[in-house]
Amino acid sequence: MYDKIIPPTSGTKITFKNGEPIVPDNPIIPFIRGDGTGIDIWPATQKVLDAAVAQAYKGQRQISWFKVYAGDEACDLYGTYQYLPQDTLTAIKEYGVAIKGPLTTPVGGGIRSLNVALRQIFDLYACVRPCRYYAGTPSPHKNPEKLDVIVYRENTEDIYLGIEWKQGSEIGDRLIKILNEELIPATPEHGKKQIPLDAGIGIKPISKSGSQRLVRRAIKHALQLPKHKQQVTLVHKGNIMKYTEGAFRDWGYELATTEFRQECVTERESWILSNKEKNSEISPEDNARQIDPGYDALTQEKKAQIVKEVETVLNSIWHSHGNGQWKDKIMVNDRIADSIFQQIQTRPDEYSILATMNLNGDYLSDAAAAIVGGLGMGPGANIGDACAVFEATHGTAPKHAGLDKINPGSVILSGVMMLEYMGWQEAADLVKHGLGQAIANSQVTYDLARLLEPPVEPLKCSEFAEAIIQHFV
Ligand SMILES: NC(=O)C1=CN([C@@H]2O[C@H](COP(=O)(O)OP(=O)(O)OC[C@H]3O[C@@H](n4cnc5c(N)ncnc54)[C@H](OP(=O)(O)O)[C@@H]3O)[C@@H](O)[C@H]2O)C=CC1
Ligand SMILES: O=C(O)CCC(=O)C(=O)O
Ligand SMILES: [Mg+2]
C-alpha cells in the first residue's frame, strides 16, 4: 500500500459517520512536520499533545503518530519535485484525521500551494480559525480580550482554485480575445469595457453549493456557542463582485432562512420585528422607512420591494420570531470585507463567527490573529465531511527556521482543536490551561517576549513546550 513509509504497528483508524469522526482510544494520526520552522514547531507540539493525553487518560488513550512527508522533506525522501507523494495522500485518506506544519509556496512561479492542494484533494471545505485572547499576551490593542471570533473560510474555491493564465501565454491571449470580441460585447451591462491585452487572467468561481455548505457548517457551529456568541456574519465584497461575493451573501441568507428558519433571524428581519414590537400599529411603509434610511429617495419600484419585504417577514415569522423571540435565535448579518477589517479592531465584541470566501478568510485570519498576539497564536483546522487536517494560520517563517526560537503556540492550539474534534476534551483543556498559565507567567517565546512591558527574556520554542506541560496541573 505504501512505497516508503510504514504505519505504526499499534493503533486503529478513525472512521466517519454522517460527517462526524468515530475515534478509537488509540487512533493512528498522520502528521507532516512541515518546511522552515516546522522543524522546531512539530516536535514541541507532539511533546505537548502526548503529555496532555497521557495525563488526562492515564494510558487509556494514546495517539499513534504516523510520520508522512510533504514539501522539502518529501523531496529528500522521494526524489526531486515529489512534494506531495502518493504515500502521503493514501495515509491521510486512510486515517481521516491528520495534522501538519507549514509548507512553502514560491511566489510568482514554481509549484502551486501544497497546503491548498491538500484542502482541495480531500475536499476540506471549511477552514476554521478561532482567534481568542489568552490573558497576559501582549497585543497592539488596548482591549484584545474583546476579540473572540472564529473565521469560517471557504477552502476549496475562489481564486485559490488556481485557474489562471500567465500574461502572454497562448491560452491566456486566446481567452482575452474571446472575452473582448465576443463575451463582453454580448453582455450589455459590461458596455465597452475591454481587458488589457497584456493582462494575466485569473478565474474566481464562487458556487452556490460551496458557499452554502460552508455557511451551513458555520451556523451549526454557532448553535454550539453560548447564547451571546450565537451570531454568523457573512463577510463579502459583494458591492464590487456582485455575482461571486454578492451571491455568497445572498446564498448564505437563503440557507439561513430556509434550512435554519426556526434557529435564525437576519439582521434586517430583527429590525422589522423590533419596529413592530415598539409600535404595534406601525404601517409597512413606516417600517420600511425605518429599516432603509434612504427610503424616501428611492424609486417607487424599490419602495414597493422593501414594503413587500416588511410584509413578508411579518406574515411569515411574526408568530415564531416576533415579541422578542428573535433575540434567542442565531443572528445572521453581513458586512462588506473592508469594513470588517476595521470593525474587528474598533468593535471586536460585536462579532463571533465570520463566514467568508477563501481570499477574504486568508487575510482576515492573519489580521484577527495579530490582535490577540500575532501569528504565534493563530490555530486552524481544515474540515470536510470525511477528513480533517489541522494546521496553523501562519507559514514557514523561514528566517527563524532551525533556531529553536519560533512560537509553537499556533500548531499546539491546532492540536487542541484536533483533540476537541476527536472528543478528547480533557486533554484539550489541559493544554489550553497549561498554555494560558505559561503566558500569564510571562514564560513566552521571542515574539511575545519583545512586546511585553518591560520585555522579558524569551524562552526557546522547546522550553515554551516544557513550560506548558509544567503548568498542566
Ligand atoms: N498553511 C501554510 O502552510 C502556510 C504557508 N505559508 C507559506 O509560508 C512561507 C512564508 O510565508 P510568510 O509570508 O513569510 O509568512 P509566515 O506566516 O511564514 O511568517 C511571517 C512572519 O510572521 C511571524 N510568524 C510566523 N509564524 C510565527 C510563529 N509561529 N510564531 C511567531 N511569529 C510567527 C514572523 O514574524 P517576525 O519575523 O516579525 O517575528 C514571520 O516572519 C511562504 O512560502 C508561504 O506561502 C504561508 C501561510 C500559511
Ligand atoms: O499555501 C500557502 O502557501 C499560503 C496559504 C495561506 O496563507 C493560508 O492558508 O492561510
Ligand atoms: Mg494565510
Automatic annotation (TrEMBL):
Q: Which SUPFAM superfamilies match?
A: Isocitrate/Isopropylmalate dehydrogenase-like
Enzyme Commission number(s) of this protein: 1.1.1.42
The protein's required cofactor(s) are namely: Mg(2+); Mn(2+)
Q: Which UniProt keywords apply?
A: Glyoxylate bypass, Magnesium, Manganese, Metal-binding, NADP, Oxidoreductase, Tricarboxylic acid cycle
Q: What does the subunit comment say?
A: Homodimer.
| Similarity remark | Belongs to the isocitrate and isopropylmalate dehydrogenases family.
Q: What is this protein called?
A: Isocitrate dehydrogenase [NADP]
